[in-house]
Automatic annotation (TrEMBL), chain A:
Extent of the signal sequence: none
Cellular component, GO, one term: cytoplasmic vesicle membrane
Gene3D superfamilies, per the entry: 3.30.450.60, Mu homology domain, subdomain B
Main localization (coarse): membrane
InterPro entries per the UniProt record, alphabetical: Adaptor_comp_med_subunit (IPR050431), AP2_Mu_C_sf (IPR036168), AP_mu_sigma_su (IPR022775), Clathrin_mu (IPR001392), Clathrin_mu_CS (IPR018240), Longin-like_dom_sf (IPR011012), MHD (IPR028565)
Keyword field: Cytoplasmic vesicle, Golgi apparatus, Membrane, Protein transport, Transport
The protein's name in its UniProt record: MHD domain-containing protein
Pfam hit, one: Adap_comp_sub
Membrane topology: Peripheral membrane protein
Length: 400, 1113
């Protein structure tokens, strides 16, 4: 299975290595660096590389490469999924998964890696179990530890690992019992030039934060579960119950977790909350082009559109942009040729507009086609798919 | 120093990436000295008494290891601390040890004893971690210690320790492959483990050590299928992949019939006629419609219930959050499911496309392979494969591949429109891939060929050379299909030779012109002229095509091109590339007529201008499915080390009975008590919550085998095991009841047979009594079990195969449980029956009645004893009359599953066997559950211990389907409990069966008076007397129940006795007629004394055990 793990930063330095079997020299990463050179864009580095004696499986996350070395046949997704789980765990522990954070907590990270794999096979990947063995650092604890020389290794032995519900630790106690559920829905849509929807789908995720004592057994039902086209669950959810009754029944992990992901099929018409009027043109004569973008609300159901942002990947020939936004501000990155217009809140009375001229490289041919626009936005307190709101939550056996 | 400096150190480490970190150490001066000094002060810290100092030192050392620095010189100082009390120091020392033990083998040995001590720790977690570290130390000398530790841990009570043992197996194997055989034994043992915790890890060990030993899986197959849903995610992946391989060796191809068809249509695919492709499409559709009736006509394929079990139990895992699990299930369905069912995986795979880009990359590769074979599956999700401008190029290219595979006449227009947008993309690699994709769509779908071609020709005027070049290459392939129509395109392309520099494109144009020079007779020589001019500057691939063009023109138009050809060939003759020189020499000989030239030159024209078949543009993913999908090898399209080939389906299914699990031991009478004992013990070692020992899991296992619904319930609810058990019980009762109802029906059929009439009526009456009783008990958990039943019946309606397997599972469970649960009921009846037998005149008939249930007796218990008392002087009365013949316990000889529908049960009828008085009569009941008749039932090949004899039962000529028949045979067991083994033969098969008598059946009752009894007892003292003290079971404190229990356990008759505190029984062994005397003397509070006097001591001891058990439970 997984032989070794190397953490590599954006500029190609190996800053952490961990071996679960015998030690493999870091020179094995050279094959990866070679591929990285070739791919130009870090996203285009093939996730699986073959070298004469090893296979390298890499993920790219938060500007870091997690490179694992394997020697024998293993399902690649198995490794990829595990590496992402490692990144998730680091994020969960330290709030961020960046080079500096990992370097600050190198010993804890190393211990975590030690617990997560045994001989290259995953041993404990549930964050609840891990947290029982290795306590995540808090400011208070690190101060106390420095003063007293205490440790952040749990002195109790983890019991969760032994039970049939490894995701929950035993003996949880809260004075206030509370459970929060966030429903986050994303519309993913492709529109063509004229504004017609080519493809749109809604993906939702239910994030939960459960702080309940004992062994609570929760059930969650939905107003209209038929809308769900496809779902995936945290392992705590009982599949059978869902299949037969369309009810989520589960013993939750302690703390934050993703309860389920769902997908609402594109057959149901998806209302796109904003419209865009854009005209980008380049002229044959004179090295310049013109850009004019206006965004307006379409179907927002009375809610405000927030965090509106437009990203445009300009053709290579575009040298600079001289634009004036009526709202927000814009940046144009010369190196990556990316124009970002950060609008913020959408004001329906005064529609935001960005217009101005683009200057092109002298002598370069006119770009053939207009660039595509990526628009990101957020609407609070609105579930686009409409109905999949939870209606009932029952708790049984909080105290066991 | 300690705390602060370490703090600084960690901070410092973060800011300095590549620099040496010594600079941040306050103690450091120069690099060399600091290195030395630094380690020195670490050593000092490690040697100190303070834990905090040690901890700091260890933290710094581990941080150095993490950064890849060598700290091996600290080894002795670190290893000293292996026994440190501070748990964090200890952990870090373990980390260090595992990292460096390999390099410092001798010193590492110092730490071994600590772990050996840890292995004996009462805390399971410490035992586990000791084993984990011990097995991670890669030192060859300790292999025997590791082996021992693994073996011991494999039978540890804690499942967590057993899991760790499973993890240790591959470690040891990689250290010393010679241990394989021993390790396989451990794996075999752990595979039988019934806890979810162990399952994943042991299968992983199996895959690494002995993936070829598929036979080890047979017995555990069903258990693994049933446990699967509750195994942790990583284990699920490994198990599913392994089971896919297993299923490929054990079951038949569910698409057997369809695959023949597929081949047929494949042929048309390769045919040259272009329209056939569409026909194939239609054909396929027709097939789908015609499938149902057609299937019926062909040889029927019946899916093995185990195959169905696997498919059913893996399906819910498609909803897992773990992409690896979803992929594993998807590949399982792709490789194993019938065509009609594979569709379910599409939705889940499409879901994975919204995950991280690495996941998308892998999933798309697999979807690409799948979409070639099962196009229909992904068609509804076509739009999910549309490309986003933010996708990385490698994802875009893969999505294009899938889109191309999915294209057909109905959706091609949408796809082409989508492609048009892609061509405008700024990502040139992606544009090139799009053009190729268009080309492939055009070749595959005839209708759009012209549209595509026109579109591509337009691209020829694109400013980007790469786009043009790619278009040329694709157009060349398309034109080959119908060149006559497109001479203007060829002309257009000829003009391009002036501008295009990409070698592949130039070569393609030249080839086109050469091949179709007859369509462009004027332009071709001119192109050659230009090319001849630039010949020396061309790339090799272009040069070869120039030679080709020259040769072709020479053959068709030698007047104009003779000189040009000579010139080109001369240039080629002195080229640096030997390929080109060779080609030139070869062509010159072939086309230029000389006096020496042989017969070949006559055919030169035919050789060069032969009609060439159009190329088939194939997906690079075609035929990749011979690799197991989802595997690394599939992704790389090359065999990775350790890849296990996915075997082909077998021609004929191997024996499915290998997977039959033996009916759990405790169903048999004697061991049932053992199980009860275990249950009493249970709290003793399962005090910690999670520790579900093998006994508990045995229960849950059978339960989950019965219905996966409740199975998953157990594991998740955790605490509910007891309630589960009761549910389980009720369920079995219910089924038992069902079974009985069936039996009743059968018996009603039998009513027609006059002989058995009265008896069967009686028995059916009894059934009703049973029913009532079991109903009462059932009522407690009725609601739950009702639910279960409903769902089960639902599923059985939905699919016939389904129900088959369900029934089988039910049956298995029934076999396992019906006996224990129904037993008390039987006992209740026994009393009555014993009395009945007094009046049962049939018993005097020499031939034993087929159904031993006696008739018509409603005597009260007291009357019965009275009668017994009356009979005390009546020695003439046959002993058989007293025997409680109706309380017969039946044993299973052949289970329905193993017997392929034939089930055989036997019981000891306790009738004298008339042909030979020294034999014990064994009454056998044959039931044919199969759908076809069984013929010529007889026995063969009897294997006996010396002295034993058997009188075979007469051959049963015909046993119609659904019928039941009884037969009697006699066995002389020679007063031993050795089994009689023989083969039971039907007209088609032979089954090995055996009959083993409980010791109580080896005797026959005799009548003694009280005085005679005492006299005989007096003669059998000393060695021949065995006395045991016991506490009677609460339910059997009265005389009647004692009598009843003893007579059930052994075939003895009661001896009248003056005292009501004593019960006496007497009998003789069947063969040697040795006396067996039993006395049960009761005292206060259920205390009792059991005395057995017997000439044969062995029999005595065994009998004591049996009667003890009968009385105490």
């Amino acid at each position: 299975m997984i032989h070794s793990l190397f953490l590599i930063n954006h500029s190609g330095d190996i800053f952490l290595e961990k071996h679960w079997k015998s030690v493999i020299s870091r020179s094995v990463c050279d094959y990866f660096f070679e591929a990285k050179e070739k791919a130009v864009d870090p996203e285009n580095v093939p996730p699986v590389l073959q070298t004469p004696h090893h296979y390298l499986i890499t993920i790219y996350r938060d500007k870091l490469f997690f490179l694992s070395v394997i020697q024998t046949e293993v399902p690649p997704l198995f490794v990829i999924e595990f590496l992402h789980r490692v990144a998730d765990t680091i994020q969960d522990y330290f709030g961020d998964c960046s080079e500096s954070v990992i370097k600050d907590n190198v010993v804890t990270v190393y211990e975590l890696l030690e617990e997560m794999l045994d001989n290259g096979f995953p041993l404990a990947t549930e964050s609840n179990v891990l947290k029982e063995m290795i306590r995540p650092p808090t400011i208070l604890r690190s101060v106390v530890n420095t003063l007293t020389g205490g440790s952040n290794v749990g002195d109790t032995l983890p019991t969760g690992q032994l039970s049939n519900i490894p995701w929950r630790r035993a003996g949880v106690k809260y004075t206030n019992n509370e459970a929060y559920f966030d429903v986050i829905e994303e519309i993913d849509a492709i529109l063509d030039k004229s504004g017609t929807t080519v493809f749109a789908e809604i993906q939702g995720v239910i994030e939960a934060c459960v702080r309940l004592s004992g062994m609570p057994d929760l059930t969650l039902s939905f107003m209209n579960p038929r809308l769900f086209d496809d779902v995936s669950f945290h392992p705590c959810v009982r599949f059978k119950r869902w299949e037969s009754e369309r009810i989520l029944s589960f013993i939750p992990p302690d703390g934050n977790f993703t309860l389920m992901n769902y997908h609402v099929s594109s057959q149901n018409l998806v209302a796109i909350p904003v419209y865009v009027k854009q005209s980008i043109s380049f002229f044959e004569m004179g090295p310049c082009g013109r850009l004019d973008i206006t965004i307006g609300p379409k179907q927002t159901m009375g809610k405000t559109v927030e965090a509106l942002m437009v990203t445009i990947h300009m053709p290579k020939a575009v040298l600079s942009a001289n634009l004036t936004p009526t709202q927000g501000n814009y940046t144009y990155d010369l190196a990556t040729k990316v124009l970002v217009w950060d609008i913020g809140k959408l004001n329906p009375q005064k529609l935001p507009n960005l217009r101005g001229s683009l200057s092109l490289q002298a002598g370069a041919p006119k770009p053939e086609d207009n660039p595509s626009l990526n628009i990101d936005l957020k609407i609070q307190q609105l579930a686009i798919s409409g109905t999949p709101c939870m209606v009932a939550l029952t708790v049984e056996r909080i105290f066991s | 120093m300690s705390a602060n400096s370490a703090f600084n150190d960690e901070k410092g480490g973060s800011s300095s990436v590549g620099e040496p970190e010594y600079g941040h150490d306050p103690a450091s001066g120069g690099i060399f000295s600091s290195d030395y000094k630094r380690h020195d002060d670490l050593k000092e810290m490690l040697d100190s008494n303070k834990d905090s100092l040690k901890l700091e030192a260890m933290k710094r050392i581990v941080a150095m290891i993490a950064r890849g620095k060598n700290t091996s010189d600290l080894f002795p100082a670190v290893v000293k601390n292996v026994a440190c009390k501070n748990i964090e120091v200890k952990k870090l020392v373990y980390v260090y040890l595992v990292r460096y033990a390999e390099e410092q083998q001798d010193l590492a040995l110092l730490s071994i004893s600590t772990f050996q001590r840890g292995l004996k720790d009462p805390n399971q977690l410490i035992r586990a971690s000791a084993l984990r570290v011990l097995s991670s130390i890669r030192v060859t000398i300790i292999v025997p210690i590791m082996m021992l530790a693994i073996k011991e841990a494999a039978s540890d009570m804690s499942p967590y320790v057993r899991k760790t043992a499973a993890h240790a197996i591959p470690k040891l194997y990689s250290l010393d492959p010679e241990q394989k055989d021993q390790l396989i034994e451990v794996i075999e043992k752990l595979l039988a483990d019934k806890t979810t915790l162990v399952a994943g890890s042991v299968v992983m060990a199996f895959e690494e050590v002995c993936p070829e030993r598929i036979d080890l899986i047979h017995k555990n197959y069903r258990k693994l299928c049933n446990l699967l849903i509750d195994v942790e995610e990583w284990g699920q992946v490994v198990i599913i992949n392994m089971l896919t391989r297993y299923a490929r060796t054990q079951f038949l191809n569910p698409n057997m019939n369809e695959s023949l068809l597929e081949e047929g249509s494949d042929k048309t695919f390769y045919g040259s006629d272009e329209d056939e492709e569409e026909e194939e499409e239609e054909e396929e559709e027709k097939d789908k419609k015609a499938e149902a009736p057609a299937m019926a006509k062909r040889k029927p394929y019946v899916m093995d219930p185990d195959h169905r079990l696997l498919l059913r139990n893996t399906k819910p895992l498609l909803q897992s959050r773990n992409a690896a699990v979803v992929m594993a299930v998807a590949q399982l369905y792709f490789h194993l499911a019938p065509k009609a069912e594979v569709g379910v995986i599409a939705k889940a795979l499409v879901r994975l496309l919204r995950s991280h880009s690495e996941v998308q990359y892998v999933v798309l590769q697999n979807v690409a392979t799948m979409s070639i074979k099962r196009r229909g599956m992904f068609e509804p999700y076509l739009k999910s494969f549309y490309i986003r401008s933010t996708d990385p190029t490698q994802i875009k290219v893969l999505k294009l591949e899938v889109l191309t595979n999915l294209a057909n006449e109905t959706n091609i227009s949408t796809i082409l429109r989508e492609f048009q947008t892609y061509i405008k993309s700024m990502d040139k690699d992606f544009v090139a891939a799009t053009i190729q994709a268009i080309g492939r769509c055009a070749t595959n779908i005839g209708e759009v060929r012209d549209t595509c071609l026109n579109g591509l020709v337009q691209l020829l005027s694109n400013r980007d050379e790469l786009v043009v070049a790619e278009s040329v290459v694709v157009i060349k392939k398309l034109l080959q299909m119908q060149p006559e129509k497109h001479s203007d395109i060829i002309k257009h392309m000829a003009k391009l030779t002036d501008n295009i520099q990409v070698p592949m494109a130039r070569a393609s144009i030249l080839w086109l012109i050469g091949e179709y020079c007859e369509h462009v007779p004027k332009i071709a020589p001119d192109v050659l002229r230009k090319m001849a001019k630039s010949f020396t500057n061309e790339e090799d691939i272009v040069k070869l095509q120039i030679i080709n063009l020259a040769a072709k023109l020479y053959l068709t138009n030698s007047k104009q091109t003779k000189l040009l050809t000579q010139y080109v060939l001369n240039l080629a003759k002195y080229d640096q590339n030997y390929d080109i020189r060779d080609r030139a020499r070869f062509i010159r000989q072939l086309i230029v007529p000389t006096e020496k030239s042989g017969a070949l030159s006559k055919y030169a024209k035919k050789l060069f201008l032969a009609l060439k078949p159009a190329p088939v543009l194939e997906s690079p993913f075609k035929d990749r499915d011979h690799f197991q999908l989802g595997s690394l090898s599939h992704l790389l399209n090359a065999k990775a080390g350790g890849y296990q080939e996915l075997p082909d389906w077998p021609e004929a299914a191997p024996d499915p009975s290998v997977r039959n699990v033996e009916v759990p031991e405790w169903t048999k009478c004697s061991s049932r008590e053992k199980r009860k004992e275990k249950k009493v013990e249970k709290p003793f070692y399962s005090d910690s919550e999670g520790e579900s020992g093998p006994t508990e899991s045995a229960d849950s296992e059978s339960d989950s085998a019965s219905s996966s619904e409740s199975g998953s319930g157990i594991e998740e609810s955790g605490s509910g095991s007891e309630s589960e058990e009761s549910e389980e019980g009720s369920e079995s009762e219910e089924e038992e009841e069902e079974e009985k109802e069936k039996d009743k029906k059968k018996k009603k059929k039998e009513l027609k047979k006059p002989v058995q009439e009265s008896e069967s009526e009686q028995s059916s009456e009894e059934e009703r009594k049973h029913e009532r009783k079991s109903k009462q008990r059932k009522s407690e958990s009725e609601s739950e079990s009702d639910e279960e039943e409903e769902s089960e019946s639902e599923s059985s309606q939905s699919e016939s195969e389904d129900s088959e397997s369900e029934a089988e599972v039910k049956k298995k469970k029934k076999a396992a449980e019906s006996k224990p649960s129904s037993k008390p009921v039987k006992k209740d009846n026994k009393k009555e029956k014993k009395e009945m037998s007094l009046l049962d005149l049939d018993d005097f008939e020499p031939a034993p009645s087929p159904q031993a249930t006696p008739v018509n007796a409603f005597l009260s218990n007291s009357l019965a004893t009275d009668l017994e008392g009356l009979s005390l002087s009546d020695a003439v009365l046959s002993p058989a009359t007293i025997s409680p013949s109706s309380a017969l316990k039946s044993y299973e000889m052949l289970h329905r599953i193993t017997g392929e529908g034939l089930s055989v049960e036997y019981c000891f009828s306790r009738q004298p066997f008339s042909p030979d008085a020294n034999m014990v009569a064994v009454q056998m009941q044959f039931t044919n559950n199969a759908t076809s008749d069984t013929k010529n039932l007889h026995m063969e090949d009897v294997k006996l211990q010396s002295g034993m004899r058997v009188k075979e039962f007469p051959e049963i000529e015909l046993l119609p389907a659904g019928e039941m028949v009884t037969a009697v045979m006699g066995i002389d067991f020679c007063d031993s409990t050795q089994a009689a083994n023989f083969q039971l033969c039907t007209h088609t098969r032979k089954f090995f069966v055996s009959i083993q008598p409980p010791v109580g059946e080896l005797m026959r009752p005799i009548f003694l008076t009280e005085n005679e009894f005492k006299k005989e007892q007096g003669q059998l003292m000393g060695m021949n007397e065995i006395t045991e003290k016991l506490t009677l079971d609460v339910k059997c404190r009265n005389e009647h129940s004692i009598v009843q229990r003893v007579t059930t356990a052994a075939n003895l008759s009661r001896v009248p006795c003056g005292s009501d505190k004593e019960c006496r029984f007497a009998g003789r062994t069947v063969t040697s007629s040795s006396l067996v005397l039993v006395t049960v003397a009761t005292k206060e509070e259920g205390a009792a004394k059991l005395t057995i006097n017997c000439e044969k001591m062995v029999i005595g001891t065994m009998l004591v055990k049996d009667i003890l058990l009968a009385l105490t439970q």
